Amino acid sequence: MAAVVLLALGWVVADQLTAALRISSQPSTAPAETLVAAPASPAATYDAVGTVSIPADDPLLKLAARTYADALLGRTGSRPTIVEGPIAGAVGAATVVTLAENPPADDASTQAQAYRLTTQGPLLTIAAADRRGAAAGLFALADTIESGRPLPADGLVEPAMGLRMLDSGAVGVTPDPAAWQSGTDYSHNSLAFRDAILADAPYVDQAALAEDAAEFRAFVDHGLQQGYNAIAINGFLEYLTFDGVGSGTDVYADDDPHRLRALAMRESFGPMLEYAHDMGMRLVLKTDMLALTTPLEQYFERELGGVDVDDPRLWDVYKAGLHELFQEMPYVDGVMVRIGEAGTVYDIPGWDYYSRLAVTTVPSVRSMLTAFTDVAEQDGKEVVFRSWSVGVGDVGDMHTSQKSYAAVLDGIDSPALIVSTKYSLGDFYSHLPLNDTLETGTHRRIVELQGRREFEAYGSLPNDLTVLHQEALQRFLAANPEVEGIWLWTQDGGPWRAGPMSLYLKTGFWQLYDLSAYAAGRLAWDPDADAAQITADWARRTFSDDPATVAAISRAMALSREAISKGLYIGPYADLKVKALGLEPPPMMWIFEWDIVTGDSAVLGTIYDTSRDQLDRAIAEGPQAVAVAQQMRDAVASTDPATWRSQDLRERFVATLDYEVDLFSTLAAYRTMVLRHEQWLDTGSADAKAQWEQARAQYVAARDQHVAAYAGDIDLPAYEFAAADIGLERADRDGAMAWLSRALLTLLVILLLLGSRPGQRLLRVQPDGGDAESGGPRRPVPGALALRALWVGLTRPWKVPTSEGAGRLDRVLVWLIPVLAIVLSRSAYTWYAAPAHLVLVLGAWALFLLVLRLSVRGRDGWMLWAGVGGAAVLRTLILLVALAPRGPGGYWFSFWTRPDSRSLYVVVAFAAFAWVLVAAWLVLRAQYGMTRRGAWGRLLLAVAAPLVVLGGLVAAIGLESALTAWNDQMALLPWGLSRILGITTYLGIPTELPLYAVALGAVLGVIGALLYATSRRRDAVAA
User: Fold this and answer.
1) Cα(229)–Cα(60) distance, rounded to whole angstroms?
2) Average pLDDT, the chain
3) What are the start-end ranges of the E strands in 255-402?
4) Would you call 769 exposed, middle or buried from its count of C-beta atoms within 10 A (0-12, 13-18, 19+)?
5) Is the peptide bond prior to 680 cis by the omega test (within 30 degrees of 0)?
6) Which of 264, 306, 622, 629 lies 20 to 30 angstroms, CA to CA, from 587?
7) Burial class (CB in 10 A: 0-12, 13-18, 19+), 77
8) In this predicted model, what pLDDT tens digit does every residue of 601-627 receive, in sequence order?
9) Residues 6+ apart with CB under 8 A from 257
């Protein structure tokens, strides 16, 4: 009956485990992305223009006119004269900009940006209702000329998308090689303006800010020239005094540095930020929520009793701050709010402006947005809310679920609200479907695009996203009339200093991913533009005017997406929508966030299992990517160096393609190695093992070459293979651990069988002086009684024999055999490479057995060792059966990928584990004569000891640190989890869990102690 109950409990545990893992997959449909190269063609020719007339002394129009004049100079050799106001005298060849009273377009959202071209002989007129439209016309003409395209036909030109926003690039970021050298700084904070913002008065370094402001102006000008009209830049709390809260000094006292810094930053940073506004760009400050400082948090503690996002008074404070921002900095056109990411990875150590992941419920998000949009409507501003909330609380799937999106946002109909959403159904990876939440809702929408793809080598590889972005924009515009803009990240996204030190417009090969910004700006005006021509135009503007060179670069870029999608992804897995642990792992995973080649069993086992029916394709894609990258390299390297405007850019281009070939060669060898190893774990095939060993040698050689060539390179950094090598080391030991497990399993079975009645007959000999013919009684050999006791303890612990007749060897073996079985089996289970796991497991066994033994001190421990030891050996046998086929690698492969096998094992293993506790209780009752109360008391004390001691140990170390050490040694989950996101954060594990274990142990210990104390006298009498 007990066995049935224990097996039933095991089934419940297995069922709950399966529900927790929630591993599943289904097909996913990503955009097709058919790239072609534009044919070689010479640049168009243009007539010289003598005069460019702009209507007024306006900084935006002057920039546009200069840009247009520079383009004409580059093509015609003649620079036109720029005139402010009407042209006096004969006109001749001229371009005239006029501002008409009547708008040239009917659409109110774009009429200020629209313009009309009219040609009358040598006179070209740009007519617009607003200076922004007039400037857009000049910028577009300049781009046409620099790209060598024929001038456009007369007619109305208006943007398809009225809002075209950029991030702030690398403005204010110091290109410090030492900060990028290690490549392991995964902080997401750009540290922008750290040179200009001081910790103490006067709070701003004016000389440093002057340099940063020059960068900001150059960035704004570049964005305007590419067709953008908005910019988002970090900042919010840094500019607030919260004077509108209470008496004005309730949050920050008069002399509080936060107040003084805010005033200094408004005064110093204000003119820099105002430049964007003056140039016709909408200026948006972006922040994570909750944004906090220590005094602000203390205010919430005093007034609200804590940081309670469900308390309307909290949002009243932020409303006051937002109103202050709009009033004191009127050139700020709006704020952008993100709730889905926050915490230390985004904060600056020692800087008292930080964020917290706190707005995670539907009511709190709605309260926040209602509060912010109320202020924005009142002040004539806008609130941009990012729907990025993946995995965060109740709103965790708002980014990818239309249902959740509606639950959060339906009914918030403020005209001041704009919802910003990534174009892909997930993060900025390839192989993902387009995000269908952008096709729903009644809110104003903008589409987020990433130019410097963080997950695809941080923009260091050629990566032409033009067709992908075009397909996304065309679909969303057709499906949802509320889609009105884009937000293109030129630089931001992911860690800033873990990849190459390429900083947009500043240093490194930033020209490579400037294609994304250039193309997105063009597509936002005209989503139907020729994508291949856009890429060719970028090549002509950036690298060379030679048709053959432009065509070669275009061919290389047309191959870039195939190289990326095969070289960095394993197609059969990437083409599926996989779910695990309640999350949606991204389509890459074998390269985890962002350059860490993983070696964990969960990811690699799942990738193999989902690719098993297409294993040849999964492996073949690696060499195919290398071949494509080599074609790209050959195309660019074959160009005539004399045709390039910059030899440095040519060298950088060839070098990055050499890097791509090398990287993909290394990754191809690695993918073959791990997939063949997983195949061997799955099938035991000798061919798979031989292919794995061959690929292993190729990987090690390729890895060493890659690291030797690129380690420490701040332009083309080596990928991180620490996690891969941990997995490799354990894979190398799987065979040996399997044989060790088989040997130990065989030995234990033999020893146990020798403890059975038939076995005991074999272990009896004639006493000294006797012989077989005499027919006298035979005695057991030394150790036989220990084997008998363990056999009975395993099968019938309530009938464990006493130690009568046991010799010294028997008394040693009765505890040594179970101890060695536990130690050796758990060591094999951990590849003899995970001391953290052994400390917990062996420590738990040791504490449990020690307390049990002390609870019967003064009495013979023989029966306790026999009963508990026999049960422990049974649990060990079950583990060894799982390890014997192909070692711990095979054990974990089945755990992650074979739910039926996993459930069967968990049911039996849990029942066997629980049987150890049952056996201990039975021995205490039957063999030591304990009362029920006494037996329970002693058992509970034994169970409590490891919970309190080991729980306390883990609590002292810290759960995240303990899990990191354990996972690094066991290689079960991605190695990068703790270094980037945190295992506890990513999996939602409460950091207080060790304290819960201590508390549970303490409760059990108290109950056990009371039971022990109240039964001690009776138990002593029974003894």
Assistant:
1) 11
2) 92
3) 282-288, 291-292, 334-338, 354-355, 382-386
4) exposed
5) no
6) 629
7) exposed
8) 999 999 999 999 999 999 999 999 999
9) 200, 201, 203
Separation CA 712–CA 828 (nearest Å): 37
Beta-bridged to residue 503, according to DSSP, are 507
Has residue 981 got a pLDDT over 90?
A: no
What residue has token string 């430049």?
A: 275
Our measurement of the distance from residue 883's CA atom to the centroid of its chain's CA atoms, rounded to an integer in Å, reads: 32
Radius of gyration, alpha carbons of the chain = 35
Range list of β-strands (E), 547-620: 576-579, 591-592, 596-597
**CA 542 to CA 549: how far, in whole Å?**
12
The whole-number pLDDT of residue 349 equals 65
> What percentage of the chain has pLDDT greater than the value 90?
81
Q: Is 240 helix (H, G, I), strand (E, B) or coil?
A: coil
Report strand pairing: 779-780 vs 764-765. Answer: antiparallel
Neighbours of 711 (CB within 10 A): 12
Question: Alpha carbon of 144 to those of 131, 589, 883: distances in Å?
Answer: 20, 41, 67
Judge contact between 394 and 582, C-beta under 8 A.
Answer: no
Give Cα 202 distance to the centre of its chain.
Answer: 38
Coil, helix or strand for 167? coil
Q: Cα–Cα distances in Å, from 20 out to 24, 27, 328, 580, 583? A: 12, 22, 51, 8, 11
In angstroms, rounded to a whole number, what is the distance separating the alpha carbons of residues 341 and 494?
A: 11
Closest C-alpha to 960, from 937, 994, 936? 994
| Average pLDDT score over residue span 786-808 | 91
Q: State the Cα–Cα distance between residues 67 and 143, nearest whole angstrom.
A: 9
pLDDT computed for residue 340 by the predictor: 84
- Alpha-carbon span 658 to 713, nearest angstrom: 14
Half-sphere exposure of 584 (CA within 13 A, CB side): 20
Neighbours of 885 (CB within 10 A): 17
* CA pseudo-torsion sign 603, 607, 612, 618: negative
Distance CA 382, CA 387 (A): 16
Cα(618)–Cα(819) distance, rounded to whole angstroms?
45
DSSP letters, 901-963, are HHHHHHHHHHHHHHHHHHHHHHIIIIIT---HHHHHHHHHHHHHHHHHHHHHHHHHH-HHHHH
Which residues does residue 287 pair with via DSSP β-bridges, in sequence order?
Answer: 337
**Residue 357: which pLDDT band, with cuts at 50, 70 and 90?**
confident
pLDDT of residue 894: 96
pLDDT of 342 over the 80 cut: no
Q: Which residues are CB-neighbours of 969 under 8 A, at least 6 positions away?
A: 830, 833, 834, 835, 836, 837
Alpha carbon separation from 38 to 515, 657, 1002 (Å, rounded): 15, 21, 73
Residue among 563, 586, 622, 560 at smallest CA distance from 429? 586
CA–CA distance, 137 with 98 (Å, rounded to integer): 11
DSSP letters spanning 208-230? HHHHHHHHHHHHHHHHHHTT--E
Helices (H), strands (E): how many in the chain? 32, 22
Tell me what pLDDT residue 183 has.
85
Residue 569 has pLDDT above 80, yes or no: yes
Helix (H, G, I), strand (E, B) or coil at 165: strand
* Cβ neighbours of residue 480 closer than 8 Å, sequence gap 6 or more: 438, 439, 440, 441, 445
Instruction: With cut-offs at 50, 70 and 90, classify the pLDDT of residue 90.
Output: low
Report whether pLDDT(1017) > 80. no
Mean pLDDT of 152-156: 94
- In degrees, rounded to 5, the angle at the alpha carbon of residue 613 between the alpha carbons of residues 18 and 591 is 70
> Which among 720, 308, 209, 214 has a CA at the least distance from the CA of 499?
720
